[in-house]
Amino acid sequence: MNNVKKTFSIRDLENLSGIKAHTIRIWEKRYGLLSPERTSTNIRMYSLESLQKLLNITLLYNNGYKISKIANIAEADIPLAVREIVAKNSVKNHAINAFKLSMMNFDQSLFQNTYNSLMSEKSFRDIFWEVLMPFLEELGLLWQTNTIGPAHEHFITSLIKQKISANIDKLQALEPTKTDKVFALFLPENEIHEIGLLYVNYEIVLRGYKTIYLGAAMPLDFLPDLQKYFTNLVFLSYFTVMPTKDELDDYVAEFAKRLQINGSTKLWILGQQARHLSGKELPSYVRSFESIRQLLEAL
User: Fold this and answer.
1) What local confidence, expressed as pLDDT, does residue 145 receive?
2) How many domains does the chain have?
3) CB 56 within 8 A of CB 78
4) Are residues 150 and 189 in the same domain?
5) Are 232 and 142 in a shared domain?
6) I want to staple 240 with a disulfide (CB 3.0 to 4.6 A). Which of 21, 47, 129, 193 is the partner?
7) Residue where one domain finishes, among candidates 52, 87, 122
8) Is 42 helix (H, G, I), strand (E, B) or coil?
9) d(Cα 17, Cα 58) in Å, to the nearest integer?
10) What contacts 234, CB < 8 A, 6 or more positions away?
């Protein structure tokens, strides 16, 4: 069965384009820019083609085109006008819109072509910070508003993780140049949001450190094994949803107990839940960071 989402509500269009539903209705009524179908209960429903057209219109509108001028552009010429703007100064917005369409239609080719186009002009690091990071932030909002489902999120995040891993592989062909720390990266049990941790791994390897990437849902019981092989270990974890605010103190205490903490082993924590540690008096072996950038400054 083909489960690709091909019809969208006006609320979906608002969430995906950033244009208020009220404004979309005005553009539709006054300028005839979109032609929705109607359900038996008179609810507007829009096609994938309408979504793509609206995203193109949004890019033109956000780059100074008056809506009245856009309405006078022949429909076949709208993509041409978009390409002219993209060629000048709006690669970021165009790429984010392309990634949205890729996600909504499970279109791996569109994702790959958009990524390749970006790579022809930018470094991977620039692509992540300038395009993928804003896209992922929007992805969270689309999830919260039920515009996308789990399949959409898993599809697009898997593609992004593939690109991060591919760039890590390139770096790991080189020997580490720094030996004062060895980083062991892991997610706690019941935590599966891996993109942030994976990208931090890329940044640390880029800076010449050795990393041991343990991945998602790692029980504390298994971590002491690493102490048999490495000194100056920094365990680095990303707490997005787990452990919860009420479980943080117990988790930190259990970490110290399981690893029999001494002066050379540290725990660095990132993520939404880690922000609850800000302002707390933490044990000397624990550091909490509010952002990836703050952590990178500490390296």
Assistant:
1) 63
2) 3
3) yes
4) no
5) no
6) 193
7) 87
8) coil
9) 7
10) 181, 182, 183, 184, 265, 266, 267, 268
